[in-house]
Write a structure and sequence with these properties.
Layout lengths: L20 H23 L1 H25 L9 H11 L7 H12 L16 H12 L7 E2 L26 H7 L4 E2 L3 H8 L5 H6 L11 H13 L6 H20 L7 H6 L3 H8 L10 H21 L6 H18 L14
Antiparallel strand pairs: 1-2
Length: 349
């Protein structure tokens, strides 16, 4: 009796990586944890509560949508955890917890699950939630507290525990106890944009300033991003293109009018540019897949960030730059696809 050989014919890919989606997402969570820890050290238990609220709301929303659609639970892939953490890091430390939870619901629900879940969303979910909060609660989203307040580990910022659609408790006594400047919109970007006061760049690089919870330490964000790049879990092209294009364009503006436009180091270390370039613009779902497309994508977002900051009415432009980049990503991918091997070039009339 002769043996029969079975030849299985399958489509590519024929080689598979040992890295799963869950493993990659877990490493992103590990990279975000030091940034979260530093934010908690700067702003205290209000930031801890905000990060827990956004993450719990993101997980709960994803589980709810999975049950409603009759699919199995997908919260084990860590993508909802990343969305919750990133959203919390882009928000003011004293933002009311209910607003953070609402932003997380918008981020995961309309921002991801409505499109079909992980891999099908068009825009970065965390930025969808942040954009909603920016439009719905413009005052709260631009209200900040000073870093390293006395007693930040023993009591909440009054606005943190505010009831939905209710004013926060009076802050007079809290300001006296914690010895801070109270609530202020005086981030380095706003000081430069509206008061023409430029903060020393290296002090911003080291952190310990007012701002969103996770944007205040560019050196730490850079190190955590490099961890993912070295592990091969993030492409270096997108953050490199975004940061370099921001520096080049900022230098051009600065050379044209140094009194009006700050230098490239100020642009690089202020606001959410570093966090956005390292952890949001590099979302594998929203970015192009071709190397040339990644460069175009990053340059586009870096250019838009500086243009919005310098020429627009807003102090910050990273969020809008990345969302616009997400929208144009499919077009960039289509235009930068390499020619198929053996394909003839079209005749030129």
């Amino acid at each position: 009796m002769t043996a029969t050989t079975v030849l299985a014919v399958r489509t590519s890919p024929h080689a598979h990586s040992t890295r799963s989606v869950e493993k990659i997402m877990a490493n992103v969570v590990f990279a975000l944890l030091p940034i979260c820890g530093y934010a908690i050290w700067l702003f205290g238990i209000s930031t801890l509560a905000l990060l827990l609220a956004t993450t719990a709301a993101a997980l709960g929303t994803e589980q709810m949508f999975c049950r409603a659609s009759g699919k199995g639970s997908t919260i084990g892939d860590f993508s909802a955890v990343i969305t919750g953490l990133l959203l919390g890091l882009t928000l003011p430390p004293g933002l009311p917890l209910w607003m953070g939870a609402l932003g997380a619901f918008i981020a995961v629900g309309p921002g991801k699950m409505v499109f079909g879940g992980l891999g099908f969303n068009v825009f970065n979910p965390a930025l969808v939630g942040r954009a909603f909060l920016q439009a719905a609660f413009p005052v709260a989203i631009t209200t900040y507290t000073s870093a390293k307040a006395v007693g930040r580990f023993t009591e909440f910022v009054p606005s943190t525990l505010a009831w939905p659609f209710m004013k926060a408790a009076p802050i007079t006594e809290w300001v006296a106890r914690t010895k801070v400047d109270g609530f202020t919109g005086a981030t380095p970007l706003m000081l430069q944009k509206f008061d023409h006061v430029t903060t020393e760049p290296w002090s911003m690089f080291l952190g310990e300033r007012a701002g969103s919870a996770g944007e205040t330490a560019p050196w730490l964000i850079l190190l955590c991003g490099l961890y993912l790049i070295i592990r091969g879990m993030m492409s270096w092209r997108v953050p490199a293109a975004m940061l370099l294009s921001s520096v080049v364009l900022a230098q051009a503006f600065h050379m044209a009018d140094a009194a009006r436009y700050p230098g490239p180091l100020f642009v690089l270390f202020s606001g959410g540019l570093m966090l956005g370039a390292m952890f949001m613009a590099t979302d594998p779902v929203g970015q192009p897949v071709t190397p040339r497309g990644m460069w175009i994508y990053g340059i586009l977002m870096g250019t838009l960030t500086v243009a919005i900051r310098f020429l627009g009415g807003l102090a910050e432009g990273v969020m809008y730059a990345i969302l616009l980049g997400n929208a144009l990503s499919p077009l960039i991918d289509n235009l930068t696809q390499p020619k198929t091997y053996g394909e003839r070039r079209k005749a030129v009339a």
